[in-house]
Amino acid sequence: MTNFDRYLDSLRSRPITALALLRDxxxxxxxxxxxxxxxxxxxxxxxxxxxxxxxxxxxxxxxxDVQFTYNSNAIEGxxxxxxxxxxxxRSGLTIAGHPLVEHLxxxxxxxxxxxxxxxxxxxxxxxxxxRDLHSxxxxxxxxxxxxxxxxxxxxxxxxxxxxxxxxxxRELMAGFHQWLQGSDNLHPIERAAxxxxxxxxxxxxxxxxxxxxxxxxxxxxxRAGYPIAIIANTQREAYIDAIVTHQTGGESxxxxxxxxxxxxxxxxxxxxxASTALECRDRGAAFYDWVLTKIDGENG
Length: 300
Known about the structure:
Layout: H1 3-12, H2 18-26, H3 32-47, H4 54-75, H5 82-91, H6 100-119, H7 127-138, H8 169-181, H9 188-202, H10 209-223, H11 236-247, H12 253-275, H13 285-298
């Protein structure tokens, strides 16, 4: 019997799914350095299944793309539910009781994800790509400002915190691009989280900065071989608090930790999908060695 078959036999004897089991076994919540080291271990498990078969890639995209669109828009106040977002994005349906702009936000974000995934194999990110991501989010809602740096000064919503003058945006974005090119010494998760923080601190656009920052963060994660971080709408308060802490001179660890925990969730789900896919039965040695040791330990 292969390791794959032994694993599936163990799953069949349990009243829970592979995802629920692996969440129980693989979730970890220590301090930030230990959490990142744990995520590196999870990534090695996922990497042992690479190259992922097209069916697995398609399944993960189907799961993550709608979740990402729903949560990213919900953080900004969009009231479409997850299932409604899926109907809008996949079937083009109109949901009664929701304004047109919420439908356009869902469609635009989904299109931005499609574009993001075409960029994931490139080695560098330039300002044009960032502006293109922003344009896809807003072009159906406000084509005048889509992909265009702001020409007015703005404050953080509900506060007196002022973002840099619009006169400085081009200079600051040029500096941000230079920082991106020179930040390869950071761990990929820390780099992606810091890029998000630096981008929203500049706030280069009149609207759509948060959604663009989350897309940019996930582009960096994908290029480093990690799955995307889906910041859950249920974490909205903690997410905003961590950003405000950084913008007012505090540390960035709380934000990086939130991103790392989000990556942990998509890593575990990716492993759950790959490890139960028939096309992966001859791969995944690092995962099956670990999980069968765990199962054998349970059995004494």
